[in-house]
Amino acid sequence: MKRLQILSRSPAETRALAGRLGAHLAPGDTIALRGELGAGKTEFVRGLAQGLGVPEGEVASPSFALAHEHQGRLTLVHLDLYRLSEASAEVLPDLEDYLGGPQVAAVEWAERLGNLLPPEHLEVRLEITGAQERRISLTGHGSRGEELLEALVAAAPELGPGL
Description:
Elements: E1 2-8, H1 11-22, E2 30-34, H2 41-51, E3 67-71, E4 75-80, H3 92-98, E5 104-108, E6 121-128, E7 134-141, H4 142-155
Parallel strand pairs: 2-5, 2-6, 4-5
Antiparallel strand pairs: 1-7, 3-4, 6-7
C-alpha cells in the first residue's frame, strides 16, 4: 500500500492537486474521500472534475440528491453519503451501479459504504490544519490505487518521492 501526504495551503491548491489526479482517471476508478465537515472533500471533487474536463462551476455537494453525474472526457459520479448512517439495504443496489462501472466515482463519506467500497481504490483523507490549510493523505489500495498515486507524483514532481 503506497501513501503520500501533502499540505495544501488553500482551496485552489486542493483543486489543483485533484485536477492533476483527475487527468489520470480511467473508467471504473473510485476515489474514496474522508474527512470532517468543511475539510474540503467537495473542493477535491471539483478539482477531479476539472481534470476530467467537466465545465467549471458544475460541481456542488449532492447531499440531498445522494448522487450527481457530470460529463467530461469520462462521466464523473459524485456521491455524498453524509446523510446515510451506513449503506442501507434500500440504497445498496443504486450505489453498486455507480461503483466499478464505465464511470469514475468520487465518494464523500466513503466509510459509510462498508463492504461496497471496491478493494481497488484511492483513499483521500482531508484534515483541517488551519483556516485554509489541509493535510491531504492519499493511500493507494490495490494495484490501481497505487498506479494513480504514481501517476500523480510523475505529473507533479514537486510532491517529492514520498511513496
